[in-house]
């Protein structure tokens, strides 16, 4: 039993609203600032800043299924077979409302055009982040459906 525990990684994702995800896994893949990063049990301690992107988790109890979570930046800390992700916001694929995400994408695209016409760089930057978040949510939901 002790050997089994050494091959398991606990993955938890926390936002200001609370715990979004907490499961035991064989593998977690995140989109770090420097590229994709795959973490398995017994990984050396690491702290990595995250981009807006998808987190994929291969759970121990569902080896043929990946959980997908849309994460909006933050960071991941790995130590003692625990991968903790702290993010401003995160949403599991099963909880994403695709029509709301697509509406958010359309709003962001409209705001980008408006900001470009007004030469408003602050609004443009905010709208571009909103667009990346909306597209991430759409992609996570669609990837999970296939």
Layout of secondary structure:
Blueprint: H1 2-6, E1 9-15, E2 18-32, E3 35-40, E4 46-59, E5 66-79, E6 82-86, E7 90-92, H2 98-118, H3 121-145
Parallel strand pairs: 1-6
Antiparallel strand pairs: 1-2, 2-3, 2-4, 4-5, 5-6, 5-7
Helix pairs in contact: 2-3
Domain ATP synthase epsilon subunit C-terminal: 95-140
Protein name: ATP synthase epsilon chain
Function: Produces ATP from ADP in the presence of a proton gradient across the membrane.
Give a description of the structure.
- It is a single chain.
- Helix content is 35%, strand content 44%.
- The protein is built from three helices and seven strands, in the order αβββββββαα.
- The protein is elongated.
- It has two domains: 2-93, F0F1 ATP synthase delta/epsilon subunit, N-terminal (ATP Synthase, domain 1, Sandwich); 97-145, Single alpha-helices involved in coiled-coils or other helix-helix interfaces.
- Strands 1-2-4-5-6 form a five-stranded mixed β-barrel.
- With 146 residues, it is an alpha+beta fold.
- The longest helix is centred in the last third of the chain and has 25 residues, at 121-145.
- This is ATP synthase epsilon chain.
Trace the largest sheet across and list its strands.
1-2-4-5-6
- Give unreliable regions as ranges: none
CATH superfamily of the largest domain: F0F1 ATP synthase delta/epsilon subunit, N-terminal
CATH topology of the largest domain: ATP Synthase, domain 1
The CATH architecture of the largest domain can be named as Sandwich
Largest sheet: 5 strands, mixed, barrel
What is the overall number of helices? 3
Q: What gross morphology would you assign?
A: elongated
CATH class term of the largest domain: Mainly Beta
Report the count of strand segments: 7
């Amino acid at each position: 039993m002790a050997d089994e525990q050494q091959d398991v990684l606990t993955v938890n994702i926390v936002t200001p609203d609370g715990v979004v995800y907490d499961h035991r896994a064989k593998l977690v893949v995140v989109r770090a600032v420097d590229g994709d990063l795959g973490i398995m049990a017994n990984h050396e301690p690491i702290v990595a800043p995250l981009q807006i992107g998808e987190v994929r988790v291969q759970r121990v109890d569902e080896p043929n299924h990946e959980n997908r979570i849309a994460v909006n930046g933050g960071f991941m800390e790995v130590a003692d077979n625990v991968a903790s992700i702290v993010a401003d916001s995160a949403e599991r694929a099963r909880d994403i409302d695709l029509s709301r995400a697509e509406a958010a994408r359309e709003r962001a695209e409209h705001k980008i055009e408006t900001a470009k016409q007004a030469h408003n760089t602050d609004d443009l930057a905010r709208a571009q982040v909103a667009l990346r978040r909306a597209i991430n949510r759409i992609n996570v939901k669609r990837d999970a459906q296939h």
